[in-house]
Design brief:
Layout lengths: L1 H35 L2 E2 L7 E7 L5 E8 L22 E6 L8 E7 L4 E7 L6 E7 L2 E7 L5 E3 L1 H36 L11 H15 L3 H4 L4 H55 L14 H4 L13 H10 L5
Parallel strand pairs: 1-4, 2-7
Antiparallel strand pairs: 2-4, 3-5, 5-6, 7-8, 8-9
Helix pairs in contact: 2-3, 2-5, 3-5
Length: about 325
């Protein structure tokens, strides 16, 4: 009798233990199922869902999505205020309806304020992904249908390079346009062709405009209106013409001044020669045509009949030495 009771008790304990074990297993599975069922976003018709594990090392506090081909800014986060994705945790992500799941950009904002962008990914190639960040890019790692480990890192790096090159090209285009406009404004500020003068300021302004044009690259020159380059050419040609006219006028004035100076010099030379000749012939002609003698030398002067009147000295000599016949 007692042996029968013991067997019954043993069976009851076994049943109770089995039930308890089943209960705890069920609770544990339910708990695990609840953890895996954590959701990001809101489930709605037309949305695409996938599992995402956070491999960023920080909790994700916000998540946005846009089409990969879009150049628009990211919209507001589709995570609700009570949702988060702790580091190393996994959640079911409900991608908003209308976003192309085969080519999507994701923006994840962590609780430390850092942001990770995952570009041009297809979230339909697998059921679950792990988001990571390396070498300045965000990407998704996953296992494909054949069991191969893959990731989108190379695609993300290529997208980053393309984005940086596009930004650099845009900045260069803006710089080229600015440089070309500066030269166009510089040329437009010059005096009109028919108002040019040969003053140093004007000539320097034209030279500076030409130098600025030469400093432009071919791409920058291509942005200039045609009248800019022609405006420099026309003004330089006008300055050359004005300089030629000025040089010719200066040469003519110089020749005229030299001719006037030479004429004056010849006139003065002729006048000097005339005065010298007059001073040398100070006496009167002798009767015999023997030339001129100064008054001081001959002591006399020509008479009206051509004979010379004797000087006082000659008269005395005649009286003393030569008999005077009556």
């Amino acid at each position: 009798m007692r042996e029968g009771k013991d067997k019954l008790a043993t069976r009851l304990l076994t049943v109770v233990g089995t039930v308890a074990l089943a209960f705890f297993v069920a609770v544990g599975m339910a708990a695990c199922g609840s953890a895996e069922a954590a959701m990001i976003g809101t489930k709605e018709d037309g949305c695409t869902s996938f599992k995402l594990t956070n491999g960023l090392g920080h909790a994700v506090a916000a998540m946005s999505a846009r089409d990969g081909a879009s150049e628009d800014d990211f919209p507001a986060s589709f995570m609700t205020e009570d949702q988060s994705l702790p580091a190393d945790a996994t959640a079911e992500v409900e991608l908003p309806a209308g976003v192309d799941a085969t080519n999507v950009d994701l923006l994840l904002t962590c609780d430390d304020g850092s942001q990770v962008v995952v570009e041009d990914v297809d979230v339909t190639v697998a059921d679950s992904f792990t988001v990571k960040s390396e070498d300045g890019v965000g990407f998704l790692a996953y296992t494909d249908a054949d069991g191969n480990e893959k990731d989108t890192k190379e695609a993300s790096l290529a997208a980053k390079q393309a984005r940086e090159e596009a930004a650099a090209a845009e900045a260069q285009a803006a710089a080229d346009a600015q440089a070309a406009q500066a030269v166009a404004d510089q040329v437009a500020a010059l005096p009109a062709v028919d108002a040019l003068t040969l003053d140093d300021a004007t000539k320097q302004a034209v030279a500076d405009a030409h130098a600025a044009y030469d400093a432009l690259t071919d791409a920058q020159r291509a942005l200039l209106p045609a009248e800019t380059a022609q405006g420099i050419v026309d003004r330089e040609a006008q300055l050359v013409a004005l300089q030629q006219e000025a040089d010719e006028a200066a040469a003519a004035a110089k020749a005229q001044a030299e001719a006037a100076a030479k004429a004056k010099q010849n006139s003065q030379s002729t006048s000097s020669s005339s005065s010298s000749s007059k001073g040398t012939s100070g006496g009167s002609s002798s009767y015999y045509g023997g030339g001129s003698s100064s008054k001081g030398t001959s002591g006399g002067s020509s008479s009206s009949d051509g004979s010379s009147a004797p000087s006082q000295g000659t008269e005395d000599c005649t009286k003393d030495n030569i008999p005077i016949s009556n």
